[in-house]
């Protein structure tokens, strides 16, 4: 028994689903609730069947609800309420601005009363009774979730929460970018059988069929007899909010379109008249072909030139792509030629300046002079850098030897002072030969180091040997190092001698 009830229930559900799916929805364009270019606005600036105010501006091609100025608001509303329950609205708009982010946004309204033209909610009134589809471009709550498209239903008692961007009040929504697109963006809003559906066209292509589902909400109860409207507002940041068209269609089911039922006799009569008309038309075609045999073409190939196959379409697209590539390469070739020409002009100007600095003006028809090469080449510069580094290393080694000799002399003087306090002049005389031997060894080490440096420098490539010195006398690096080493040695010996005399003088105190 339970299986029988279950089967009946399944059959009932399937029949209901089949009836719903087979039910046809008819559309009817409602021109009194629509506007589109061209001649969108009349000569006196009015839009037929619509009223606009605030900072809105209507032209023959679009309605600019809010210009790209700070704190601008504007709106446009239908003059009469709608007289149908279900509807579909197609809105084409452009939101453009120079900033990375925009403000504040645009909104589509369906409310029981027309809103203000300078309201607080995207240019319209707060506490509305009906539906608002908001295209919010400014991130008030700083959650990085804008631009955002959302639907908010209000019963006329709630204030819109700007701080949270209406996140606590929205019915549904989707994150979509609609600013600064190459083509106008579009939104298709459908309300049928208490189901609200919003489709969005991102404006990246010019194909009118590139819609994607933004959101769908069911069990949405809207009041009857409302007004359509569009509004926009700007804040500290500003965008141009342009609406190109708003097309409204009323939706009717099969039962609503039925109206008066046609009887079977009338249906047979109409079908018979239609068949007679078809026969008469075919007879007229046959008579025309007999009277004009030269103008008659093959029936099978009559429309072949009007259509193309898949292969022909692909070849046409390939040829178009190749043509575009060819145009781009041609433009690049022109730009490269312009750059080369600018470089040649710059070189000629530099040559002229150099020639004038040398006191030789360029004569007309004379080839420009070539700028001379630099006197020092890359190899000479590398050799100079290597020799400089070698000189630095040698000086560092000499400094180390001098510090070592100074340290040893200090220790010897200290020992000599201690011996002088104990044994007098005899102790100082005993130390002098040892001190002279140490000094002789240190001087020999300094000489060996200088000789080693001279040998290494003689083996390295010299700048002076590669370049000529016509006007000044050239001094070799080896000679310079030997002079420096001799000066350091003399200074060192003088210092030791002075310290020795001072140490001997202290012994008498």
From TrEMBL:
CDD domains membership: lectin_ERGIC-53_ERGL (cd06902)
One GO term of the biological process aspect: endoplasmic reticulum to Golgi vesicle-mediated transport
Biased composition (Basic and acidic residues): 282-300
Disulfide bond as UniProt keyword: yes
Region (Disordered): 282-303
Signal peptide bounds: 1-22
A GO molecular function held by the record: D-mannose binding
GO cellular component: COPII-coated ER to Golgi transport vesicle; endoplasmic reticulum membrane; endoplasmic reticulum-Golgi intermediate compartment membrane; Golgi membrane
Keywords: Disulfide bond, Lectin, Membrane, Signal, Transmembrane, Transmembrane helix
Membrane association type: Single-pass type I membrane protein
Domain of life according to the entry: Eukaryota
Domain L-type lectin-like: 27-251
Record flagged with keyword Signal: yes
UniProt-annotated location(s): Endoplasmic reticulum-Golgi intermediate compartment membrane
Membrane-spanning ranges: 475-497
Name of this protein: Protein ERGIC-53
Annotated organism of origin: Papilio xuthus
